[in-house]
Design goal:
It contains 15 helices and no strands. By secondary structure, it is mainly α. The longest helix is centred in the middle third of the chain and has 29 residues. It is globular.
Length: 308
Amino acid sequence: MLNVLSITVPIFLLIGIGFAAAYFKIVSPADIRALGLFVLKFALPALIFTLLSQRHFTEIWNLRYLGAYGLASLLVFTGMFVFATVVQGRSRAEAAVQAMGSCVSNSGYVGYPVAVMVLGPVASIALALNMIIENAVMIPLALSIAESGAEDKKSPFKLFLHLASRLGSNPLILGIAAGAAVSFSGYQLPMPIAKPIQMLSMTSSATALFAVGGTLAGLQIKGVIADISRIVAGKLVLHPLAVLLVLMLVPTLDPAMKKAMLIFASAPMLSVFALLGRPYGQEQIGAAALMVATTLSFLTISVLLSLI
């Protein structure tokens, strides 16, 4: 339990520092928005690029793992999206962002430290595989649906061009493409180029969590409790259960990789969840869901570790 707390408490404290800074007006809402943009446009793409480019393509090309984790994540995304749109009447943009929060984990800053503590070096390979699914499949899928929901009045052709343009210029997508290209080629970037990218990547976690805390300072809970509860339950309960269900269909997968998959699925949603939801009016709901999920993950991760 203490090992898990040593991972999750710093996350909670960073969110709390951001909350206090905004609440006592040490930083303004404009400052928080600027920090969020920095993470999305520079720090997070640099992190994704670094994680993918530093491993050779053959090292992380585990089709069974990719297929199993990807299928489980897609099942949760689809279920949560349909429930939000059909049962709760949410717009496609709102539902897509909220469904993303239920199936995209904080793999780098919660899942990986727990996995490496339990499994050792195999955790780094699982991390790279998770990053591929999350950043090359789930996040682009959610953002594509959200964009299409925000642009309902466009003709299909114009909508396609709009989505292609938005996604093609998205720094996250560019970071994935560049990292995958370098990984596939086996090319090593010169140190004067690689070093500043690594420095940028190291700022992503703390800055994102600080910005999330600042966003929480203006949160109005009334009317969004149902959304927050659904997102959190989807992430901490449905996502690990979906992974467990799919793993029953892949008996030949290495046992250590199975454990890694369950650990990563049990982590709370990615730390930039609220920032990704900002263009679709989901920033405050995302920030609240992240804080609740991170807090409850003290218990859910501990329970999972006791079972595996």
